[in-house]
Write a structure and sequence with these properties.
The protein is mainly alpha-helical. It has two domains: 318 residues, Na+/H+ antiporter like fold; 129 residues. The chain has 22 helices and no strands. Helix 12 packs across helix 21. It is globular.
Length: 555
Amino acid sequence: MQNESIQALEIIFLFFMVFIVVFGLLARKLKTPYPIIMVIGGLLLSFVPRIPKIGLNPDLVFFVILPPLLYSAAWQTSWRSFSRNLVSIFMLAVGLVTFTVLGVAQLAPLVLRGFDWRMGFLLGGAVATTDAIAATSIARRLGLPRSIVDVLEGESLVNDASGLLALELGIAMLLQDKTPTVGFALARLAYLTLAGLAVGLLGGVIVHWIEDRIEDGPIETAISILIPYATYLVAEQIHASGVLAVVAIGFYLSRESSHFFSANVRLQAWAVWETLEFVLNGLAFVLIGLQLPYVLQGIHDYSRTSLILYGAGFSAMVILLRLIWIYPGARFSYFIRQHILHHKESVPSLRRMFVVGWTGMRGVIALAAAIALPQTLSDGTPFAQRNLIIFLTFSVILVTLILQGLTLPKLIRSLGLAGVTESNEEEQAARRVILESALSYLDEAREKDPDHFGIYDDLAQHTRHHLTTLSQDGDVGEDSNLGEYSRYVDVARGVIRNKRSTAVRLRNEGKIDDALLRQIERELDLNELRLDGGKRTDQLQESRRAFHDHSRSQL
């Protein structure tokens, strides 16, 4: 029996992996964000006979899928951009979530049979959180302004915590038959936030201390996978926000990784996490589509026509609530930044606000939250509206992902926001400072090492050329011997270290953001690995070729 269960798990695992890969390739071919294709694919698969029927376990989402995706998203998010847009992010992640929950609580009893405001509050908590994966993937592909993408990514990082708090309060009202006070809700939100952030930051300090004493790619990559799970579990054990804990440790370690990750480890971890993120996202979105049979099987008191009308009407309500909030929320955010924080920003345009409003796509977190609702009330009677809440949540996910996801590209183009090229003055200035610092380093090092004067001159010449054109051209002779190449590698590695430390300093001084630092680091890491590979070459001829190829790559 045990062998049969293991074989069944293997079949299910292979089933998911095959379809994730197939749907991913199809999405690339169709030039459509893969979350949309995977949801549609999972939905179509649910109608195929003999396809394994796989129910969505909320614990799978909250404890297996959610932590690493949050950690990866936080790691890739620029802290500078996040902090600059914190007011706008807060207005969406907390203000919009609250507005959606209260709006659904008031409107649901008017249009849904058997619902009171408490059940509407529960339903609002389930559908309040957004999943910005599909939206940001479309936005990046179409060249949407970075400021909009930053806000969407920040919203998706934080709003899970506020949405799950609303769900917690709704369940308490339903089971305990009492309404929590505003003071209790604020106190609970404060504890969730502060305790979650404390767990994340403390965990980050501990991990940083450990990483400083390890230099092993596979081990450090394994630790990076362990981090979000351990952080989430610790925070949940003390009833704090596991979401905010993982986000906090992701931000902290991302900023500090320049100090404790070597080039080799950084590239290895990046490749592993890129694959892991794709697989987990694929699993989440395919699972959504496969849930249709489970969503429908518990509903017996409604005709198909009524369900379609309910699903379409409620989805329109949720979309409309977001659009209603976006305009006053954006104006209020601008007022705070302009008059209180004294940020020099222009008034957000109606086009940009509408695009942000149209990207309120829901994902697997909303469905898992709905499925996790209790099946019985405090008096032991069945929770009759639970199945309808799950269906309505499922409907909102499908409508927002498919309808909004597929129409967003055309909307962005029609509003003239596609292919917007933002100024790269910051990047140009940063690269110029880095190259100037490298030249200063070469001048100082050349004075201390007169025996290899030509190597320094050669590197300085290429660096000056790069400084002038910011291109990657260069030439070098092929008549050097193995000793010369070995010294060349040592000097070039010093230049790379200097460039990296200069880039980190610019980031720490707020002159560049984390996204640009990661781009520069990746370029330097690849060059450093190319150096290491060439130095291990035993053949003199291969050494010369590596020497020549490396000099052409332009540090």
